[in-house]
Design goal:
Helices cover about 35% and strands about 25% of the residues. It has about 300 residues and is of the alpha/beta class. Bound molecules: adenosine-5'-triphosphate.
């Protein structure tokens, strides 16, 4: 569990993180979303004790990071810039981290296996592809078998296979009961991965809710029928509001999809399509953060 309480960070004139209060719960993947410059990395650095809050506080499992006796066993973090000695092999890199944190060498082979790098363990980390470096970074976060995991933009630059691998891994870690916080500026990707979404813009909390609430915005039901004129009349009589969509489809509000289906069946109206309309998550995100993008493309 991670708890933020009025967390604030000011760099001179810039209020990078502005009074953030939210809780990241165990057993779930929580997506931490915001446009570039929203304050995600700064927030993560404060969670990890790498940056000092101007005011407010943050705890991991009830304690400030600096008070954790064995941090690597409590929190694993993959930040954007990973420091890996380029001439050291993947195995030696992890063994060094394990030894300096009192973790048994045995765990090194285990985490290499977990991330699929057993075969590449003897190779120099400096020649790793981006995907392999990312796996090595994740192996390091898992070394101490921590109950809390932070990933800052973990899918940036990865190919589809790598993206899928990370998504599956994060879901698996949450299913084991761990607390997983993952930052991204890609709403679509987060929709597939996260159970909950915390959205920030210009350092401020914009939304904190289950992922489904962002997709299910009650935008009506899309209906396609060759009898559109007649069916529109019937729908209006049944108390619905109807407007024309693209290509002759009807957008119906005020009635549910099952209500509309039943009405069509009763009246013998053929339906070619009947689907609740969901605003895409990407649209919902743009809408939420419209006023809080630091540098808009049009400016
Ligand atoms: N060390 C620093 N000194 C001064 N300003 C900083 C510092 N670190 C971050 N900032 C500023 O704080 C704001 C938030 O930056 P941050 O990197 O946390 O955002 P982000 O949401 O992680 O963005 P991105 O997706 O681009 O990484 C930005 O305006 C940034 O320029």
């Amino acid at each position: 569990m991670i708890q933020l309480n009025g967390l604030t960070k000011r760099y001179g004139e810039v209020l990078a993180v502005d009074d953030l209060t939210f809780t990241v719960r165990p057993g779930l993947v929580t997506g931490f979303l915001g446009p570039n410059g929203a304050g995600k990395s700064t927030t993560m650095r404060m969670i990890l004790g790498l940056d000092r809050p101007t005011s407010g506080s943050v705890t991991v499992n009830g304690r400030a990071y600096r008070d954790l006796p064995q941090p690597l066993r409590e929190v694993g973090a993959l930040l954007e810039a990973q420091a890996v000695h380029p001439h050291r092999s993947a195995y030696n890199h992890l063994r060094y981290l394990a030894q300096t944190n009192g973790i048994h060498d045995r765990r090194v082979a285990e985490v290499l296996d977990l991330v699929g790098l057993t075969e590449a363990a003897g190779r120099r980390a400096g020649v790793f592809s981006l995907g392999m470096s990312q796996r090595l970074g994740i192996a390091a976060t898992l070394l101490g078998d921590p109950p809390v995991l932070l990933f800052d933009e973990p899918v940036n630059g990865l190919d589809p296979e790598g993206v899928l691998w990370i998504r599956t891994l994060m879901r698996g870690l949450a299913a084991e009961g761990r607390t997983v916080l993952v930052s991204s500026h890609l709403m679509g990707e987060m929709a597939l991965t996260a159970d909950r979404l915390v959205v920030i813009g210009k350092g401020k909390l914009i939304a904190d809710a289950e992922t489904a609430t962002f997709t299910d915005t009650g935008e009506g039901v899309l209906v396609r029928t060759p009898e559109d004129v007649m069916f529109t009349r019937l729908l209006l009589l049944a108390g619905a509001r109807v407007r024309a969509g693209l290509d002759g489809e009807l957008i119906v509000t005020g009635l549910t999809a099952p209500d509309i289906g039943r009405l069509a069946a009763t009246e013998g109206v053929p339906l070619f399509e009947l689907a609740p309309r969901r605003t895409s998550l990407e649209e919902a995100f743009m809408e939420l953060t419209r006023d809080s993008v630091e540098y808009g493309a049009a400016r």
